[in-house]
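Hey, I was hoping to borrow your eyes for a little while. No rush at all, and the record is pasted right below:
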Amino acid sequence: MQMMTTLSEPEMLAQFADRLANTTDAMAMSYFRNPLDIESKADDSPVTQADRAIEEEMRRQITETFPTHGILGEEQESIRLEASHLWVIDPIDGTKSFLSGMPTFGTLIACMTDGRPDLGVVSIPPTSERWVGQRGKPTLLNGRACKTSAKAQLADAILYTTSPDSFDAAGLAQFETLSKRAALRRFGGDCYGYGLLASGHVDLLFEMNLQPYDYMALIPVIEGAGGVITDWDGQPLTLASEGKVIAAASTTLHAEALAALHSG
C-alpha cells in the first residue's frame, strides 16, 4: 500500500506560487509585442490592459485557494492586510520594458507570513527563467540552486540600476558615488537584475522609489542565494520602508557600499 505524503505549508504555498507564475507567464506572453492600450496612472507611470488582466487573475486564484489570505498588489486596492498570510504581487514588473518590446520584464510573487517575506518568485516570461526563494532554503533558478558571485570589493563589482530617471537629485548623487568606485555600471532590467544578481552575473543593485510589490519577492531570492538586500541604511525592508533598496552579492560588498554612501 502506497503511503500518502502530506505537504507542509511552505511546500504548499511554493507549489501554488509556481502554478500562479505559470498562468501569469502565459498571459503576459499573449500580450507581449502586441498592440496595447496605454494609460497613465496618478504618478504618471504607465499601465496597460495586460497589467490589469493579469493581476485580476492572480487575485482570483489567490482568493479562491486561500480565502483568508490578504493581497497587496499594484493595480487594485489591498485586501485583508492584517491577515497572517499576505500575498504581495506585481503582475508586470517593468511595464515600460514590456510595452516597448524589451524582454526584461517579469512577474513578482511574494508570500509574507506574520510580516516576514518567506517566499518569493521572480518569473521572466520571455526568457523562461524563474527564481524561487524560500526562507531557510537555497534559491532555485528553474529548479537548480544558484549563488551570487560573492564579490567582496566595490572596485570589482558590476553595478546596476533600472534607470537614472527614478532618482531624485540626492539619490542620483549617491548612485554616482557608487558608480565611481565600481568596476562597471549598467542600466535596465527591473526585477530581472535581481535574478541576475542571485545567479552571480550582477554584483550590486541600487534603486529608489520602489514599492513593496517591487521588492518583497526579491528578499527571499537574494538572501537564499547568499546575497544581502536592505534599505540604504542597512535596515531590513518592510511594508513601511521608503523604497530605497540596495542589494549586494556578499555581506562584505554590502558593508563597503553602505560605507561609501554614508562617507560621500
